[in-house]
Write a structure and sequence with these properties.
With 661 residues, this protein is an alpha/beta fold. The chain contains 25 helices and twelve strands. The chain has two domains: 46-374, ABC transporter transmembrane region fold (Up-down Bundle), CATH 1.20.1560.10; 432-441 and 473-606 and 614-654, P-loop containing nucleotide triphosphate hydrolases (Rossmann fold), CATH 3.40.50. A six-stranded mixed sheet has the order 6-9-10-3-11-12, with helices on both faces. Strands 2-1-4-5 form a four-stranded antiparallel sheet. The radius of gyration is 37 Å and the shape is elongated. The chain binds adenosine-5'-triphosphate (ATP) and magnesium ion.
Length: 661
């Protein structure tokens, strides 16, 4: 693994001709595992498309016996349902038409009232047994559906948490939430109701055909004629409803996402008095959704009466044809009733066939989307032979690094937009390097590579001389602590937010790092101190307070390398200087910085411009060199109307010692 990356680094990094080099590198990047994975992925997904529902059955494996019991109960209940008209027909024959030999197979007197009573008892027993099986079926399938959905939800959320940062950059949170909630719900409906209902319909139709043709094939043909017509109506209805259901599903998702976004950004909405506008936009979409829903309802309500009409015609036809046979003495009254009863017994579920096929189709779409996620493998995982470093010195390096955020774009012909070009930089143990550059020059990208949130397209990032790709993630996390540009806190206590980086950190340890990060003072003043809830639903902190807690969270890891992405920008210069001085002196610090006092405190300054390192050295050296850094410095100075008012003057006073020892 190391060999491969190093050789690629050297060839791409050291070629003379820059155009030649970039072309070759691009070609290499296209052959990178990302692209191979994207191509393989799409072929895989295509193959799975047909099998999503089949794959779902795999989730039944751990619960195979309860599932078999539930679906078996469905079959049993259906068989009993089929028996009821049969027995009913014979009771009628036994009671009214005593010569017809109804229920002759039951023990007791051959005809008359005794027969009737025995038959009625039998009917009661069947009805009770069917009720019992029906309960087992309904409860059992509901349980199976919930188990399958819970299993999928667990798998999907687990996968989402493990997928790479690059994946999450492009994904919409709203859509991912829909996957976890809605798509698993569709699958639940399928496993809980559709499977059992489709089994029921199949057993009913097969049973009715067998029983009726066994009695009288002509009358059977008349009685069963509506079934295929109903089935065709149901299926075409489902075909018409399918896309509309999908549209409703999409519109619902869009509506939820819109509301979610407005609510999470409620401050922006309110600050720009956009409440009315936002509400109107929501209303418009809501109305569109209403129209779509009504459309679905219209089709539903037009299909059902048609089906009832067809059932009525079928029943009349049986009465006509069968009635003549009864009059001619060729058919018993009981049999005529039996035929009619079967028509209605079949009619109900066959009418719902479309509905359940629809559930199956929607579950298939949802399952496909879920498997698309589940089949996605995170790229940034430990190599099988990943190294665990026992001691970490804290030496980091970027070697001829090229990087693009979208390097795993599915379309291999698209050239990813590079945000870092041939960046090489070494930082020794205990050294403090400040990264400077204009907004968008690639500072965040550079330090995110060090935290291995991404891998470089070309070149390597190293810790103690090891390519990060060869190290275990645990080692990287132990070695490098990263403080993001935007400090985020979870809805949890201060203690839990800090200890998040090292579960099990003691209260004293958390307090210790909070002191270092200049947070202890304000945390103590919170109503419940370290137990105060912060974050979304809790007490809201100021930007600078949040940043200090984020720093404490990184410090609690005791990592020898601290990566600070403009992490104290919202903290006043004086406090920042105090915090900086209290940081462990032996730490390697790579800090992206805008503020002069921070920059001056560094041992070395590295200037980035459009993704390239254009200059590095101490402040004095860079000013003397009169290059890009000196120009930036002069521009900032010129921007201030009066030199004496420069915030830098105060900063300079605080940090007059210059770099760290
Ligand atoms: N997740 C992302 N996906 C795609 N492009 C990105 C992503 N993040 C940043 N970029 C782009 O990469 C370039 C470098 O961004 P980066 O965040 O590294 O800049 P920066 O130097 O940290 O800027 P700032 O000082 O504003 O924080 C920018 O052009 C930006 O638009
Ligand atoms: Mg940045």
């Amino acid at each position: 693994m190391t060999e491969v990356h190093h050789s690629r680094t050297e060839r791409c990094g050291t070629r003379g001709d820059p155009t030649d080099r970039s072309r070759e590198c691009r070609q290499r990047a296209n052959r990178s595992p990302f692209h191979a994975e994207a191509r393989e992925g799409s072929a895989l997904i295509r193959r799975l498309r047909a099998q999503a529902l089949v794959r779902l059955l795999g989730h039944l494996r751990p619960i195979i016996w309860p599932a078999a019991g539930a679906y078996g109960a469905a079959i049993g209940a259906t068989l009993l349902a089929l028996a009821i008209p049969r027995v009913l027909g014979q009771i009628i024959d036994a009671a009214i038409d005593q010569g017809a030999g109804g229920l002759a197979w039951l023990p007791g007197p051959p005809a008359g009232r005794g027969r009737l009573l025995a038959g009625a008892m039998l009917l009661l027993v069947i009805a009770v047994a069917r009720g019992g099986l029906s309960f087992l079926q309904r409860y059992g399938t509901a349980w199976v559906g919930r188990m399958v959905a819970a299993d999928l939800r667990r798998a999907v959320s687990d996968r989402l948490l493990r997928l790479d940062t690059a994946f999450h950059d492009k994904a919409s949170v709203g859509q991912l939430m829909t996957r976890v909630t809605d798509d698993t719900e569709k699958v639940r409906q399928f496993a809980a109701t559709a499977v059992a209902e489709l089994i029921t319909i199949a057993v009913l139709v097969a049973g009715a055909v067998a029983i009726l043709t066994g009695i009288d094939s002509l009358l059977a043909a008349v009685a069963l004629a509506p079934v295929p017509i109903l089935a065709v109506l149901a299926v075409t209805g489902a075909g018409r409803l399918g896309p509309r259901f999908l549209a409703v599903q999409r519109a619902t998702g869009g509506l939820t996402a819109r509301l979610q976004e407005s609510l999470t950004q409620i401050r922006i909405v309110q600050a720009f008095t956009a409440e009315r506008r936002t509400a109107t936009a929501y209303e418009t979409e809501n109305e569109a959704l209403f129209t779509r829903r009504l459309d679905v309802a219209r089709i539903f309500t037009s299909i059902f009466p048609t089906m009832s009409g067809i059932l009525g015609i079928g029943s009349a036809a049986v009465l006509l044809v069968g009635g003549r046979q009864v009059l001619a003495g060729e058919l018993s009254i009981g049999t005529l009733v039996l035929f009619n009863a079967y028509i209605f017994l079949l009619g109900q579920p066959v009418r719902r066939l479309g509905f359940f096929l629809n559930i199956a189709a929607r579950a298939n779409t949802s399952a496909r989307r879920l498997y698309e996620l589940l089949d996605r493998e995170p790229v940034l995982v430990d190599a099988p032979d990943a190294l665990e470093l026992q001691t970490i010195e804290g030496r980091v390096a970027w070697r001829h690094v090229d990087f693009a955020f979208d390097q795993e774009a599915a379309d291999p012909s698209r050239v990813p937009r590079r945000v870092l070009h041939d960046v090489s930089l070494e930082v020794g143990p205990g050294e403090h390097v400040a990264i400077v550059g204009t907004s968008g020059s690639g500072k965040t990208a550079l330090v995110q590579l060090l935290a291995r949130l991404y891998d470089p397209a070309v070149g390597a990032v190293e810790l103690d001389g090891h390519d990060l790709r060869t190290l275990s993630r645990a080692t990287i996390r132990r070695g490098i602590a990263f403080v993001e540009q935007e400090a985020f806190l979870f809805s949890a206590s201060v203690y839990h937010n800090v200890a998040f980086a090292r579960p099990g950190a003691t209260r004293a340890e958390v307090e210790g790092v909070c002191r270092l990060a200049g947070a202890h003072h304000f945390v103590s003043a919170l109503p419940e101190g370290y137990e105060t809830l912060v974050g979304e639903r809790g007490m809201t902190l100021s930007g600078g307070q949040r940043q200090r807690l984020a720093l404490a969270r990184a410090l609690v890891t005791n990592a020898p390398v601290m990566v600070l992405d403009d992490a104290l920008s919202a903290v006043d210069a004086g406090t920042e200087a105090t915090i900086r001085e209290s940081l462990p002196q032996e730490s390697t610090i790579v800090s992206v910085a805008q503020r002069l006092s921070t920059i001056l405190a560094a041992d070395r300054i590295v200037m980035l411009e459009a993704g390239r390192v254009v200059e590095q050295g101490t402040h004095g050296e860079l000013i003397a060199a009169n290059g890009p850094y000196a120009r930036m410095f002069a521009k900032t100075r010129g921007a201030a109307p009066d030199d004496t008012d420069l915030p830098w003057e105060a900063d300079l006073a605080v940090t007059s010692g210059g770099g760290r020892p």
